[in-house]
Specification:
Layout lengths: L1 H14 L7 E8 L7 E6 L5 E8 L4 E8 L5 H7 L9 E4 L6 E6 L6 E3 L18 E3 L6 E3 L1
Antiparallel strand pairs: 1-2, 1-8, 1-9, 3-4, 5-6, 6-7
The protein binds zinc ion (2 copies).
Length: 145
């Protein structure tokens, strides 16, 4: 499903030509050599597409939800076959940071996942739970527009 999602983003990239860059795809990796978990992660959406990303503990992988941005041309959105804007399951208050986390249903298992908005919010490895989860600078960054 991740492949389909990436393909969809790639397709949109070509369908919706624009010069502004709103999202970024990176490869993130765990600093623990005993763990070695790594995954492509895309932060943000694009000019025509809004996107929510998070880690599903049920599926043990990063998942995302995409929908057409309000104000985007109807024709383009119809061609891209984007679903309507998802409703959050609810929200959680993070007592340590004071952040409000929106919780959505995983597109695959329907279990809850919390929205991750930026690399700064993703500091711990989702596999071993150790800190030191960071962007692998040896891998190329991908612009999503
Ligand atoms: Zn899931
Ligand atoms: Zn790890």
């Amino acid at each position: 499903m991740k492949t389909i999602s990436s393909l969809r983003l790639l397709l949109l990239h070509f369908l919706l030509v624009s010069t502004a860059v709103a999202g970024e795809g990176v490869t993130m990796k765990c600093s623990q050599t005993s763990c070695g978990f790594r995954s492509p992660v895309v932060f943000g959406g694009g000019m025509m597409v809004e996107r929510i990303m998070g880690y599903c503990r049920g599926c043990k992988k990063f998942v995302d939800l995409c929908w057409g941005r309000e104000g985007a041309p109807e024709e383009l959105l119809k061609d891209a076959k984007l679903p309507p804007k998802p409703k959050p399951l609810g929200e959680l208050w993070d007592a340590k940071t004071g952040a409000i986390l929106n919780v959505y249903a995983c597109p695959q298992c329907k279990g809850p996942f919390a929205e991750i908005r930026s690399p700064e919010q993703l500091t711990h490895c989702p596999d071993c739970n150790h800190d030191g989860f960071a962007v692998d600078e040896s891998e190329p960054r991908m612009a999503i527009d």
